[in-house]
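Issue: copy button drops trailing tokens. Both records pasted manually instead:
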Amino acid sequence: MSWKVIGASVVGSSHIHNSAPCQDSCFYHVASDATGAELLVALVSDGAGSAQFGEIGSEISCEAGGKRLLEIVETNGEAALESSVAAEVLDVIRTRIDEAAQARGVTPRALACTLLGAVVGPTRAFYFQVGDGAIVSREGGALAPVFWPESGEYANMTYFVTDANASEHLRSELRNAPDELSLFSDGIQRLALVFATETAHEPFFEPMFKALRGSPDDQTDSLCAALEHFLSSDAINERTDDDKTLILATRLPGAGSVSSV
């Protein structure tokens, strides 16, 4: 396999205190297209804290969005990676959320959630995002955010896939394929990003990427468990009481060749 990938979503200490569920979800899978080329698909979604069924919205976003992305890349490979894919995935998610809202007798806003997505093939990467949280990528050098987290008009506000104008806040970008990348929800963005300079806080990531690069293939499960333990640790909970999701992916040496988009 061309990638090593780990990920975890953990409930925040404030949600534990209030007996509330974890409203974060994540999805990641390494797929193969018709030629045998491998593509990494990864999604993170954070249910709005004010949404009654935010955890359902985030689950739908990752499950429905991940399923549609896999169908696209398994059929057409990285040649399919273009801006229209992000709009299509958003439409699929919104439709599924509308159906779930109707079944519960609530408005879609009750399932409000953010969305971050990445699809990486041998040479090209496609990223998209609605709301906060972030994706950082390493294209041969330092880690850097793909998009800066988008806040709303007021503090602690952002945009959601259920917003009537969600398509206006859907950002997408096609780039060269990275060597490494990470997706994470806003629960850890204050630890993972330097807001003063709008850069990635590399000391947060480097120990984890180093461990992932050096691990045998059969240790993925144990690394996922270690990641979950880290995100649930007192050291992290002292700095953020929100739900937390983190996906880390590193490309194996010699897997794929990077060319200009």
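Record 2 (pasted manually too):
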Amino acid sequence: MGSLNATVARPTVPNVILWFRTFRAITGSGFRRHATYRQASLAGVVTNVVFGFLRCYVLLAAVGTVGTVAGYDRGQLATFVWVSQGLLAVILLWGWTELADRIRTGDVASDLLRPVHPVTSHLAADLGRAGHAALVRFVPPVLVGPLFFEVYLPHRWSTAPLFVVSVVVAVVLCFGCRFLVNATAYWLQDARGPQVLWTVCSGVLAGLYFPLRFLPEWLQVALWLGTPFPSLLQTPLDVLVERDPVGVQAGLVAVQVAWAVLILVACRLVQRRAERHLVVQGG
């Protein structure tokens, strides 16, 4: 017999409007929460800009006198670097340990008594955080890059909406991955090991350190279809720099959406299993 708590409840049709209002309120609180850390935001912007110069010079050196590498020209690589530096804080590959910390301290028990599912509440708060980062952390690197480097500007009208959709899906997908990593604390008590593994894998396989198109084609396909990592950062950047035709761009975003749905379903299942585990432990 399953545990009776608020997380098993689902919004009924008459309560849909109330559910959306609650979701919006939590999102707003997440935005306001991160808006209070002004000095941290400024330090993050400076760090992203400094590393933007380093990464850009390294990748441009890889192009050399050839002009293109792996289908990217110099302008596309410059855009790839500076937009990725801005997206780092929006998508937030690392740094979120709130769920694992609450599990370790036992505070997660109070979360199960709330009328909103833990996955939903944490997702709403993360979207608020991403909205703040889009205004404060994304814009400065995108403005600094063109002052010192020749960047690539999209030529197709469809690129802008596809890029926005891709970034939003990437935020949701990254949240789901981080939720699963944090949820290992339900069984391990200490999630630092999985978090270190996530930090290494997400940095390398998401396309942060170098574009994944530098890899052999068979490995690219295996990563895109077999793991969610390229959908976190590489896909939005490839969409923006128009590395592929429109059809391929839409296909990459579709893969993103599929991974996001799959990961969110996994989050729900893991949370449900964890609740039963807590009950067995007497939590």
